[in-house]
C-alpha cells in the first residue's frame, strides 16, 4: 500500500462567538482568534502530510477588524510552504453575521507547524511545488518568515 498523497485543500472552521469569548467591548479576545487559527493550521498541516503536528510559531499576524459577539468566525487555513520538517500554513479569519453570511476580513497570519512522532521526534514532511503566481508569492512570504525564525 502506498503512502497517501499530500492534500493541500483548505481547512475551514466555523465558530460562533459567545459572550465568554469576548472582552468588555463585545469583540472576540485576540487570544481566542489566535487559538482558532492555530487549530485550523494544525488540521491543514495534518491533512497535507497525514501526520501529527505541533505549533512552532505564528508570524506576521495582523488583526484587521473585530469579530463581534453573535457573529461567526470563519477560519480558513491552507499549506503554502514546506521545508524538511516544517509546514507553513496561511490562516485567515473572516466575520459573518448569521443573516447575511457575507465575509468581512478580520485577521490573517502564518502558522509554522512541525511534524512530530508519538515519541516526540521530528518527522519529515512531503514537499510540493507552488505552481501559480499566487502560490509562488505565498511560498516566498512563508519562506522568508521561516528563515527569520531560524
Describe, in short, the structure shown.
With 150 residues, the protein is an alpha+beta fold. It has helices at residues 30-49, 133-149, and strands at 11-16, 53-63, 72-82, 86-96, 104-115.
Mean pLDDT: 95
Tally of distinct domains: 1
Low-confidence stretches: none
CATH top level is Alpha Beta
- Give the name of the CATH superfamily: Hotdog Thioesterase
End-to-end separation in angstroms reads 36 Å
Beta-strand content bin: 25-35%
Tell me which CATH architecture applies here.
Roll
Largest sheet data: 5 strands, antiparallel
Shape: globular
Query: Could you spell the SSE succession in H and E letters?
Result: EHEEEEH
How is the CATH topology named? Answer: Thiol Ester Dehydrase, Chain A
Number of helices: 2
Number of strands: 5
Percent range for helical residues? Answer: 10-25%
Helix/sheet category: alpha+beta
Strands ordered across the widest β-sheet: 1-3-4-5-2
Global Rg: 16 Å
Give an account of the 3D structure:
The structure is a single chain. The chain has helices at residues 30-49, 133-149, and strands spanning 11-16, 53-63, 72-82, 86-96, 104-115. It has two helices and five strands; from the N terminus they run βαββββα. The protein has one domain: Hotdog Thioesterase (Thiol Ester Dehydrase, Chain A, Roll), CATH 3.10.129. The radius of gyration is 16 Å and the shape is globular. The longest helix has 20 residues, at 30-49. The chain is α+β, with helices and mostly antiparallel strands and 150 residues long. The mean pLDDT is 95. A hairpin with a 7-residue loop joins strand 4 (86-96) and strand 5.
